[in-house]
Write a structure and sequence with these properties.
Blueprint: H1 6-21, H2 25-38, H3 47-60, H4 65-82, H5 85-101, H6 105-118, H7 126-150, E1 152-153, E2 159-161, E3 167-169, E4 173-174, E5 177-178, E6 183-186
Antiparallel strand pairs: 1-2, 2-3, 3-6, 4-5
Helix pairs in contact: 1-2, 1-3, 2-3, 3-4, 3-5, 4-5, 5-6, 5-7, 6-7
């Protein structure tokens, strides 16, 4: 079994991914365990994807986050050693999603953004489209949470934000947050528009 070609390794890794997508996580994990057992550290052409997929399947299987994160970090380290930017993007995206689930949104963004920013072409590929969407979601959620935390409503229903920029905001607060923003003059939290 040690003489399996790189093509067979790639095919078995892709088969493990299909197992994961069809809910056969244990079969996928067994297959990836076999692949990892057969290869030495010097045979790392597909090691990045194997470790990344192994982490994804462990996550689906309900494994502890620390074990999953260790696989993603290993995949990321190998991709960086190989200077394989597309594989680095995939590994960074997997780790970024894990961190987002753990509430580490800023760390998730800081990890993925520079890898995505390295690319100058190929933006129509699935990997870059997925990374772009994930970064946009991280930015949107971060901004929405920041606005909710920093905006206050005066006794006349006007919004003001002294924390963000020291300006008064005339607008309205809807159920999902700010529905209209129009920054006016600097003010203090107790002196807002009609309240002054």
């Amino acid at each position: 079994m040690r003489g399996r070609s790189v093509g067979q390794t790639h095919n078995r890794a892709m088969l493990a991914e299909v197992y994961g997508k069809t809910g056969q996580t244990e079969a996928g994990l067994r297959l990836l365990d076999e692949v990892l057992a057969e290869h030495t550290n010097t045979e790392q052409h597909y090691a990045v994807e194997v470790y990344r997929l192994h982490g994804e399947l462990l996550l689906q299987h309900g494994q502890e986050a620390a074990a999953v994160e260790a696989h993603f970090h290993l995949a990321l380290d190998i991709a960086r050693q190989q200077q394989a930017k597309t594989l680095e993007l995939r590994a960074a995206l997997s780790l970024s999603r894990l961190w987002q689930q753990q509430g580490k949104r800023q760390e998730a963004y800081d990890l993925l953004a520079p890898v995505y920013g390295w690319f100058t072409e190929g933006f129509d590929t699935a990997d870059l489209q997925e990374a772009k969407q994930h970064l946009a979601n991280l930015r949107r959620k971060h901004l929405r949470r920041r606005l909710r935390n920093d905006l206050s409503v005066c006794r006349h229903g006007r919004l003001f934000c002294h924390e963000l920029c020291g300006c008064c905001c005339e607008g309205t607060a809807g159920r999902a947050g700010v529905t209209q923003r129009q920054w006016t003059r600097p003010c203090s939290p107790t002196m807002c528009g009609a309240c002054s």
